[in-house]
Amino acid sequence: MDAAAGVSAATVKSIFVYPIKSCRGISLPQAPISSTGFRYDREWLIVNSKGRAYTQRVEPKLALVAVELPIEAFSLDWEPNHHSYLVITAPGMDALKIPLAKSVEIVNGVSVWEWTGSAVDEGDHAAQWFSNYLGKPSRLVRFHDASEVRIVDPEYVHGYKVMFSDGYPFLLLSQGSLDSLNTLLKEPIPVNRFRPNILVEGCEPFIEDLWTEIKISQSTFQGVKLCSRCKVPTINQETTEAGSEPTDTLITFRSDKVLRPNKKHQKGKVYFGQNMVCLDSINGEEGKRKSIKLGDSVFVLKSVTSAADAAV
Hints:
Largest sheet: 7 strands, mixed, barrel
Structural class: mainly beta
Mean pLDDT: 94
Low-confidence stretches: none
């Protein structure tokens, strides 16, 4: 179902970045595209005493940690100075200010999922803040892009990289898909349960499953694979309480068995949203400083005919 030239399939409704992995996101009017996703997305990580990543899967209290960046930080040509900070807040805690000008303290043995490498340590004050909040030894680290590269799964796509994202630079979801799910739930849930980077509207539910190449503004995105969902969508982002929804409902119509009934290799997962990469980040165009903004049209350049044909 290729969109005719000049005809929009959807528009960008919301843009989100999540500066600290598993903490609250920031909703933006526009976001510059970098080689690893949107600028500042999952650039920081909270780790335990062994350098292993904390996420909401085991520390749901992270859902209440809010972050703030200077609004100009998402202008195309902005560069941080010594008065630029990431400001972190949480219930019962004083605000923590992290300088955006990088420190030089490097720690080794930081790990998230399959990856282990070095990172920039944000210091003892930040470590004490998170240790007090979580009630266990913790440190805040920043991706060390000067020396480290964390590649996207080469089984699906080659040449792309991320910082501390689970696996891919971008996650796209449609408002239609969320609305469709919410009609089946006793209690509708907000989009923050699914932590997308790009929320689009004006298209039919789950049509994003089929998009293998789209264009937003001047940037071309490739749909890599449907996003398999973990425990996090079951965690209420306002209370940190976990339940069985929306996973129980998603299993009924968004599982392998339903979407891909004739495939031999079922993975026993549920899918919601599309993982994406931006072609600009490896074709030499990232230096041109591109961004996307609210209201941008989404043009479908290539697609598959059904979810059964989409990569998972």
